[in-house]
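Handout for the seminar on molecular recognition.
Each group receives one record of this type.
Step one: identify the two inputs.
Step two: read the structure output and locate the region that could contact fe (iii) ion.
Step three: write two sentences on what you found, then compare them with the reference statements printed after the record.
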Amino acid sequence: MRSVTKNNITETFLSYMAEDTSPRVGFLLERLAHHLHAFARETELTHAEWRKGIELLTRAGEMTDAERNEFVLFSDVLGLSSLVDMISSREGSTSSSVLGPFHILGAPELPYGGDLKQGNDGATVIVSGKVSNQRGDGIAGAEIELWQTADNGLYSNQDETQPDYNLRCRLRTDDQGRLLFTTVRPAPYTVPDDGPVGELLHATGRHPWRPSHLHFIITADGYRTLVTEIFPDDDPYLDADAVFGVREDLLVAYVECADNSAVPAGLDAAGRLTTPYFTVDLDFVLADR
Ligand code: BEZ
Ligand code: FE
């Protein structure tokens, strides 16, 4: 095309694609070009604004390494990561929610009823619950991976004062699909805001806080893997999560208990519980594969 115009540039872009381009790649690029070009036309994007955007992305690239991915963080605070989660969620199963950057492989196993809290400061939480399928049957032997912050709002891989793999574990449901363990109540924390993503947040008057949460990855043969988070229903940041991870079905009550009447059988920490502690009941529903 020799006479490219504002109005035919999208079609021109498409006409340059080879006939044998994979249909999905062709479709995604066609839609991307359509929205990108429409965005520039609609906003009458200036050179200075274009340069600012490129400069932010360039600095995101410079900051990105194996430990920190500023591009994923852009996707998180722009709501794209959560949108992809919601698109791939199946109705009738537990909502998925962001994986985040603090998951690491190799967490140790915790037996049924085990104590993940150990020497951590903070309030004890007894977590009980069930992993079921969409027909309501418990799923025996489902693997649950859990990671969370300590009471100071930091993950073990952000905080040199915490032992490796602190507040991280893999556990399995029992023969009825039930889960049981004790841990510490997690704390709200901020996503990293010392880079270009922070500039974007601050430029629009947004804060970097996330409500406190427990992260889970749940896998079981024959079912779709669930990556999700569970939030206390009274957290002050529920309505302003910097990364849009909150869903109604992921809210649970942390019920405060002042005596030992709520201690379930089979809890390792039963004899060492100090009051008050909290109980949380989690019900996860996995979608069929
Ligand atoms: C997290 O929950 O660990 C997280 C998610 C997105 C961005 C930063 C942190
Ligand atoms: Fe997190």
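Reference statements: The pocket of fe (iii) ion (ligand 2) is lined by residues 100, 102, 213, 215 (CB under 6 Å). The first strand starts at residue 114 and ends at 115.
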